[in-house]
Design goal:
With 388 residues, the protein is an alpha/beta fold. The protein contains 13 helices and 16 strands. The protein folds into three domains: 112 residues, Rossmann fold; 184 residues, 3-Layer(aba) Sandwich (Rossmann fold), CATH 3.40.50.720; 83 residues, Alpha-Beta Plaits (2-Layer Sandwich), CATH 3.30.70. Keywords: NAD, Oxidoreductase.
Length: 388
């Protein structure tokens, strides 16, 4: 029986994915966490914890280094809220170009018998522009960015995409009408709108700052519905004050952005739809079950991807450091225990490696002894024995 602990409100449709081999919220010493936005950085991860799945794309609320050292695989659910974010960006493109927020605020503050005449006279203040023929730069064309790029192209916009890490699989999802820029500067220099859809890491923090804003054309509209910190808000404020940026829209609040007519801050609602919550919870639950039952890894954010058909009665998995002779030590330990290896697969991701070993025979009483033997190898974080 596997134990799963949930944080936040997890959609029931996701919880319904778990089979009768799983118990939900029966203990704090769980095998798996299924979470959304809870901050785990100050939490102690139990040694029993084998997997964390976040029902969403971001994972900066999870201490990846500590999770790895604990032998805990961490997964996100990429693409689960992509359509939700895409639809919000499309709505904001329209709203910003037609000055809808300012127009609605004006209308809400006017009343009286002559309101029709007054608003008819004043409506020229809110004259906007159409999206057709305008240029949109999409920075990051993964799950979300590719959908935004395709939708904007369908609206008649000229779309330029920039993503130095674009995978072959992701490229298939991008319309042939999208122009691919070779550099960030090339993408943003002539854009009327710039939207950012990249994960937050050391390379992308401050990706849009003073230098990049100086390259953009006057009157550009900027959107950050990716992560806070990817756009330098201090630099944006200066660009807004200089009337170089016309509008800044973001999902991430900051005191310096408050009480400005040229800034729209939404309360982190990019992926907050009923459908996205169901998608994330469902994908997260399935990820947990796949990992716990087969050891196969897809979409981990701290371990390498590794999928091997589980065709033998037993499987041993190891999370360990990516250093020389680890596979040799593991194989030697199994040989010394008199255990024959049917198949072995190994993959690495920077300083961490993952090994799957398939076995035909393993006596039940050997499980703990084998785990103990392999766990004694230096640089091994976790050993698991799985039965098909």
């Amino acid at each position: 029986m596997y134990q799963v602990k949930t944080y936040n409100a997890i959609a029931q449709a996701g919880l319904d994915q778990f089979t009768d081999q799983y118990q939900i919220n029966q203990t704090d010493d769980a095998d798996a966490y299924l979470i959304r936005s809870v901050n785990l950085h100050k939490e102690t991860l139990p040694k029993t914890l084998k997997v964390i799945a976040r029902a969403g794309a971001g994972f900066n609320n999870i201490p990846l280094d500590r999770a790895t050292e604990n032998g805990t695989a961490v997964f996100n659910t990429p693409g689960s809220n992509a359509n939700a974010v895409k639809e919000l960006i499309v709505s904001l493109l329209v709203a910003s170009s037609r000055n809808l927020f300012a127009a609605a605020a004006y209308a809400a503050q006017n009343s009286g018998a002559d309101i029709s005449l007054r608003t008819e006279h004043d409506k020229t203040k809110f004259k906007g522009t159409e999206l057709t023929g305008r240029t949109l730069a999409v920075i990051g064309v993964g799950h979300v960015g590719s959908l935004v790029a395709n939708a904007a192209s369908a609206l008649g916009m000229n779309v330029i995409g920039y993503d130095p890490y674009l995978s072959a699989d992701a490229a298939w999802h991008i319309s042939t009408t999208i122009t691919r820029a070779r550099t960030l500067a090339e993408a943003i220099s002539n854009a009327d709108y710039v939207t950012v859809h990249v994960p937050k890491n050391e390379e992308t923090t401050g990706l849009i700052g003073k230098e990049q804003l100086a390259i953009m054309k006057d009157g550009v509209r900027l959107f950050n519905y990716s992560r806070g910190g990817i756009v330098d808000n201090q630099a944006v404020i200066k660009a807004l004050d200089a009337h170089r940026v016309q509008t800044y829209m973001t999902d991430f609040g900051d005191n310096i952005l408050l009480n400005r007519d040229d800034v729209i801050v939404t309360p982190h609602i990019g992926g907050s739809t009923q459908e996205a919550e169901v998608n994330g919870a469902t994908q997260g639950a399935r990820t947990i079950m796949t990992y716990l039952e087969t050891g196969n890894i897809t979409n981990s954010v701290n371990l390498p991807n590794l999928q091997v058909p589980f065709q033998t009665p037993y499987r041993v998995t190891l999370i360990h450091k990516n250093i020389p002779n680890m596979v040799g030590q593991i194989a030697t330990a199994l040989a010394n225990a008199g255990i024959n290896i049917e198949g072995m697969s190994n993959a690495a991701r920077e300083n961490v490696a993952y090994t799957i070993i398939d076995l035909e025979n393993l006596k039940n009483e050997e499980d703990n002894a084998l785990i103990a033997r392999l766990s004694k190898i230096d640089a091994v974080f976790r050993v698991r024995v799985l039965k098909k």
